[in-house]
Write a structure and sequence with these properties.
CATH superfamily of the largest domain in chain A: FAD-linked oxidase, cap domain/gating helix
Oligomer: homodimer
CATH topology of the largest domain in chain A: Vanillyl-alcohol Oxidase, Chain A, domain 3
Radius of gyration of chain A: 23 Å
Distance between the termini of chain A: 42 Å
Number of domains of chain A: 3
């Protein structure tokens, strides 16, 4: 199979773009929203339009085979997939690409790259699929480094062992989602961890960033699916035991889960797998009142029913996404199980939804394929396509971005109102006109939801980054002031640092800094992420 | 209410001992097992039999009110509740009691005790209920300390806030189990975390040791019930945000969960609560073949049914515990839920059990009180009484002890055979006659069980500690060599250090040591536990 190339300026592979129909629909939608008759459109950049500074370091001959200074590869590894990344790509701004892109094929080569980097005072940025939306893989770093290596793990892409009895597999960390599932399929097993970035992100990236999957309850983060980890640190290789559960001190895995590449490079993990679901039920419930809908979700979250999906999408977001009839707030509800029918669970969840004023179409919920049809199906499709829309929107000058958090139920209503209001206000202040802010839940817990906010605004060409920074700051300030977390599953990276620094307990920061110093004494790994040495 | 006193030489309060009937039954049982006609019995010690070395340090006057050097208090805080603790107590051996027992009533007083300890180069051993069976609260420590303070947290015993909406409460860490539940009851909420030590252990102790509760699936460890923590460290107070879920870096709480008092003193936590179950089903299933029974448990663990109880007890252990008919291996199976009936879940679980040769009495499973009757009820009662039996057995020279672990399903059969065999052999080698080794599961996961081994042996008076050390070493060596964890929920303490040191990844040890140094630079806290500075 010829290796497909990732876009350096947008989501996904170069041969997968927003369709002409999608482009037309999006342009019409936002033209209508902003009363604009004609878009002044910027085309995406081509690689040969951009000349990069020469690489400052040269790999040793033993590393030559796995290292490249190819222009397009350096472009691909300059940024992640955030809105500011998109703006800078469309502006052809790539002032600080990595000097070298290394693509090791073995763990020994990962070690060799770290050793080489150490010998030439060069920073190393672990790179999975590059889907970070928080500056987590950005090559423009601060500090006295003589160079930057982007360490692409995608050639470590194999499922090495499958344990059918315990339902677990030893998997190399650089494997992309679809290739991982394809290798598990012959064993009739699945990880069933489907973040929005599934096609363009890796197992190691999921573990390093505490990725959130498609399960709305229970196995929300990758954290719980990790049985053991193997991590190359500058101080040696850390390998934890395969254990279904342990009480032997603080969990070693939980230190590396969420470490965002600053403590080591995850090379392998034993992951907990599942059988493919045999029984399914899915439907959507409409609520006239958002907060009543949220209360229904709370009751379902506290019921012990554990729906696989239970995501309420507000009216505005449903409308932007083209889901539902535009009248109600839509709760997408689904159950799945590989062992036994789920219809009694769905019936009870709907009973709860009904008690809070929800209405639904009786016919859909029992249909085995209903998660792919109706409002559920429309949502699923819009969710998977949404990341491609940015390449259209940035080109026409529409800022479209999201941020996400979690909060306990007792504070949710005020929290939601504050964050929505602060974001609406700053958009108006910064852009001079109304934009849009909407909310959905991505994951729910007995003690609170994980609200996910989407917004769009009309930018002024050339001022996009400043405008975005102001909006991001006001929204994040509001969210942190109201008690939320700066991220539920997008991770901290470099973009969230100011708020993460406020959020995390200071003694924990001491401990993390000390752990970093112990494992990465020369601070080679992902400088600027999570903590400063 | 007059404060009840804990026994310094055994389990529980001084007024709660093994009943005369229990004593008679135990003596007859083991006399029969070991063909002994008459026991040479040692009586438990009285406090005034034991004279302790004088306290080496004196609290400052401001701490006088919360500190004591009372003889019995120093005895109570010398040991935990392990078998070697029991042997030393019955031998009247208390060479290294804490110099002072401090009982702070506020967090500020906890800080003051740490400051005082630092000023007089004295170690501090956080003490919850003192139920450690791994030397976790032992006052005999190594190192250049001028004194030892046992820091008893039991006066920090209040539920400070209850959030009925999110179902969570802010709770002081020193509260004992029954007092915690009593304070939640008026709010119709419960933590539902019932370790065997429930009556004599504290919330802070559970968090510090990753305690295992009564739920056999899902919420097995306290870890998942912790919403946020507040910890006094010598480097400052660490307080995490109340969050239902987060992806902001490695979890701060997960560093303190399982830290066994070496990083700080947990003073408060927000804990996730539940409604009291309204629907229950419980029964017991008998298996002629142990490994077939284990396979049934595996299938149930992988079914997504999440029974609240699913513990298989082997024939030998059932017989020692007086559970079942002595013929089969007994699976105690139960479901509970506060929102909806659990009968279809029980029916499906029994269908699985039946497919692996399990048999059960049809009448019991639907009975709402069946978890308190039949084999389930007998098991429950024996489980709660068992810790009191040691005070009888140590007195007559029977070593009764347990150890626990976890292992993935693919390795379980060999693992179990190896550990059982190694323990049986060492008992024969060390004591010159057969003892007994038995196994049950305490918790189960989709990828493996947590096996719990119990053994007894006839000791030689005066040689008990040596004999125990040899048996403990052989059993732990076997368990670690076969891939298990040295502890699933008893924690590491001082007793498990040699095997924990083998088990934990070395780079993680570097990181933990560095974190310890950052938070507790003078190494005041619980020296010798988990790691050496």
């Amino acid at each position: 199979m010829a290796e497909r190339k990732f876009k350096f300026w947008g989501w996904g592979y170069t041969n997968e773009v927003a369709t002409p129909e999608e482009r037309a629909r999006l342009k019409a939608f936002y033209a209508n929203r902003f009363s604009i008759s004609d878009w002044d459109e910027v085309a995406p950049p081509a690689a040969d339009e951009i000349s990069l500074p020469a690489a400052r370091i040269k790999p040793t001959s033993s590393l030559d085979a796995i290292c490249t200074t190819d222009n397009e590869q350096r472009l691909i590894h300059s940024y992640g997939k955030s809105y500011p990344d998109s703006v800078r790509a469309f502006a052809r701004e790539f002032p600080s690409p990595p000097d070298i892109v290394a693509r090791p094929t073995t763990e020994a080569e990962v070690v060799a790259v770290l050793d080489f980097a150490d010998s030439v005072s060069t920073a190393v940025i672990p790179f999975g699929g590059g889907s970070s939306v928080v500056g987590g893989v950005e090559s423009a770093i601060k500090g006295d480094y003589l160079g930057v290596i982007s360490l692409n793990l995608q050639r470590l892409d194999r499922v090495l062992e499958v344990d059918n009895v315990s339902r677990a597999a030893r998997i190399q960390a650089g494997v992309l989602g679809p290739h991982l599932e394809a290798q598990l399929k012959p064993h009739a097993l699945t990880l069933r961890h489907f973040p929005q970035s599934f096609e363009y992100s890796t197992l190691g990236g999921w573990i390093a960033t505490r990725s959130g999957g498609h399960f709305a309850t229970r196995m929300t983060h990758i954290d719980d699916l990790v049985e053991s980890t193997r991590v190359v640190t500058p101080a040696g290789i850390s390998e934890s035991r395969r254990l279904p559960g342990s009480g032997a001190g603080p969990s070693p895995d939980r230190l590396f889960v969420g470490s965002e590449g600053i403590l080591g490079v995850i090379t392998e993990a034993w992951m907990r797998l599942q059988a493919k679901p045999k029984f399914r039920a899915a439907t959507s419930v409409s609520f006239a009142d958002w907060y009543r809908g949220a209360e229904a979700v709370r009751e379902i979250a506290q019921s012990g029913l554990y729906p696989s999906n239970c995501r309420i999408i507000d009216r505005e977001e449903a409308s932007v996404m083209g889901v539902g009839d535009g009248q109600g707030h839509i709760l997408v509800l689904a159950f799945e199980n590989a062992d036994h029918p789920v219809d009694t669970s769905m019936a009870r969840a709907l009973e709860i939804a009904g008690a809070f004023g929800g209405t639904w179409d009786d016919d859909t919920s029992a249909n085995q394929d209903s998660h792919r049809s109706g409002a559920s199906g429309a949502w699923r499709n819009a969710f998977l396509r949404a990341p491609y829309y940015r390449e259209v929107l940035t080109g026409i000058g529409v800022m479209y971005d999201t941020f996400e958090t979690s909060i306990t139920w007792d504070r949710f209503a005020d929290f939601h109102a504050n964050v929505m209001d602060a974001t609406r206000r700053i958009i108006r202040d910064v852009t001079g006109r109304d934009g849009s802010v909407s909310c959905r839940f991505t994951h729910i817990y007995p003690d609170g939801p994980a609200p996910y906010f989407s917004f769009y605004a009309l930018t002024r060409r050339g001022a996009e980054l400043d405008q975005w920074n102001e909006i991001k700051k006001a929204a994040s300030d509001a969210l942190i002031a109201a008690g939320g977390t700066i991220t539920h599953h997008h991770s901290v990276g470099r973009d969230h640092r100011p708020w993460y620094d406020v959020q995390r307990p200071e003694p924990f920061a001491h401990a993390l800094r000390a752990a970093k110093k112990a494992l990465d004494p020369n601070a080679l790994l992902n400088p600027g992420v999570l903590i400063d040495p």
